[in-house]
Specification:
alpha/beta; Aspartate Aminotransferase, domain 2; 38% helix; 3-stranded antiparallel sheet; Aspartate Aminotransferase, domain 1; globular
Length: 378
C-alpha cells in the first residue's frame, strides 16, 4: 500500500557498511557492536543497567524469572496486548491473572490491579499501548506496597517519557523491543533494563546459559581466562543479541531523533484533525506524558462499522487495522477473563493509523481526511 501501517527505517548504505565490517571481522556473535549499542542505550535512557537480548519476549521471560516467578505463582497482566506479553508466564509454570484496562487509554487499570493481588502474586506486567505510558507512578507504588515487581512491557514505547524521564525509570524492570517493525529496529532484538543492581547481574547471567558473559569474555568474544574455572550456579537461556543485529540497531539509534520525532509530530497532527469529531476519540494523554506513538490508535463510536472502515481505507491505499487482540480467549491460557468489560469494549472499537517517519504532513492530512470521509458515508 502507498500508506503502510509499518515501515522500518534503514539507511541501507550505512547499515551495509556496518554489516560488512562485522562479516570481515569473522565474529558474528555478541561482541564489539553489541557493546556499542548497549553503550548508546545507556546514554539515551540514562540507565546503567542495560542488557541486550535477542527479543523483547526473551527479555520478558528473564524479567519474570528475576521477579521470582515460578510454578504455581500468579502474574497480573492485561489481556489487550501482543500475546508475547503473556506467554512467558505460562512457560514458567505460573498463572496469568487478567486485569482490566482503562477504556480511554488501552492501558492496565491500577484499581483493578489492586483487586487482583493475592498472596500468590509475584509480579505485575504493564504495557504502554501504542507508546502511551501507563499510570506508572501509581503502579510502582502499588507494587512496592505489596512487595512485588513491576515489569514494564515497553515494546511500543521506545522514546516515550513520563514526568520528563524515560519510562524505564518508573518500573523495576523494563523490556524494550527492537523487532522488525518497531520504531528502532535491529531486525529482531530487545533489551532489559533493571533499576536494581542485583537484578541486572541476574539478567546478565540468564541471557547466556547462566554465565555472566560480560565479565568472562572480552569485546571480541574471547574468554578472558580459563573456561574450566567458571561455574554455573543456575541455568539460564540463550537470549543474547548478536553483532549483525546490533549493527542495524546502531544505525537506527543514531537517527532516533528523526525517526521517533516524526512519529510524535504526526500524532500531534492527527489529534488536531480529530479534536472535535464525535465519531473518533484519540487515546487520553496526561500532561506529564510524552508518548512515542509507534502507531496512532483511536476509538471509533459504537455506531461505526470498523471492519468496513478498514476495508474502505484499504481501497484508498491506506493500511489501517487492529494491531493486537485480547489474549484471554486463547485456549492456551487458564482463565476466561469474563470480567474484562473495558478490554472487550476497547477491542471492539479500536483502530490504528499509520503514524511514522515515512509520512509527510500532507500524507497525514490525507489519511485523516480519508478516515473522516469514510466514516461520514456510513
Amino acid at each position: 500500500m502507498k500508506y503502510p501501517l509499518f515501515k522500518v527505517h534503514v539507511d541501507i548504505e550505512d547499515v551495509m557498511s556496518r554489516i560488512r565490517k562485522v562479516l570481515e571481522s569473522g565474529f558474528l556473535n555478541e561482541g564489539r557492536e553489541v557493546l556499542e549499542i548497549r553503550r548508546l542505550l545507556k546514554e539515551i535512557l540514562d540507565q546503567d543497567n542495560v542488557t541486550m537480548t535477542s527479543s523483547c519476549t526473551g527479555s520478558l521471560m528473564m524479567a519474570l524469572k528475576i521477579a521470582g516467578v515460578g510454578f504455581g505463582d500468579e502474574v497480573i497482566a492485561p489481556s489487550m496486548t501482543c500475546v508475547a506479553t503473556n506467554v512467558s508466564t505460562e512457560w514458567l509454570g505460573a498463572k496469568t491473572i487478567w486485569a482490566d484496562i482503562e477504556y480511554e487509554t488501552g492501558n492496565i487499570d491500577p484499581e483493578d490491579v489492586i483487586r487482583k493481588i493475592t498472596n500468590k502474586t509475584k509480579a505485575v506486567i504493564c504495557v504502554n499501548w501504542a507508546g502511551v505510558p501507563c499510570k506508572l507512578e501509581k503502579l510502582q507504588s502499588i507494587c512496592r506496597e505489596n512487595g512485588i515487581k513491576l515489569i514494564q512491557d515497553a515494546a511500543h514505547s521506545f522514546g516515550s517519557t513520563y514526568k520528563n524521564k524515560e519510562v524505564s525509570h518508573w518500573a523495576d524492570i523494563t523490556c524494550y523491543s527492537f523487532q522488525a517493525i518497531k520504531h528502532i529496529t535491529t531486525g529482531d532484538g530487545g533489551a532489559i533494563v533493571c533499576l536494581n543492581d542485583n537484578d541486572h547481574e541476574y539478567a546478565a547471567r540468564l541471557k547466556w546459559y547462566g554465565f555472566d558473559r560480560d565479565r568472562l569474555k572480552d569485546e571480541d568474544g574471547n574468554w578472558k581466562g580459563r573456561r574450566w574455572d567458571s561455574n554455573i550456579k543456575e541455568v539460564g537461556w540463550k537470549l543474547n543479541m548478536n553483532n549483525l543485529s546490533a549493527a542495524i540497531g546502531i544505525s537506527n539509534l543514531e537517527r532516533k531523533d528523526f525517526i521517533v520525532g516524526t512519529h510524535k509530530n504526526n500524532a500531534a497532527l492527527y489529534k488536531n484533525y480529530f479534536l472535535k469529531n464525535k465519531n473518533i476519540t484519540p487515546l487520553k494523554i496526561d500532561n506529564h506524558m510524552d508518548p512515542a506513538y509507534w502507531i496512532y490508535t483511536v476509538l471509533l463510536d459504537s455506531s461505526i462499522n470498523r471492519d468496513r472502515v478498514i476495508s474502505d481505507m484499504a481501497n484508498l491505499d491506506i493500511h489501517t487495522g487492529v494491531i493486537h487482540v485480547p489474549n484471554h480467549p486463547y485456549d492456551c491460557f487458564k482463565e476466561t477473563g469474563n470480567d474484562l468489560v473495558n478490554t472487550n469494549k476497547f477491542a471492539a472499537h479500536q483502530i490504528s493509523l499509520p503514524c511514522g517517519w515515512w509520512l509527510s504532513e500532507k500524507d497525514v492530512k490525507y489519511i485523516a481526511d480519508s478516515l473522516l470521509g469514510v466514516i461520514n458515508k456510513q
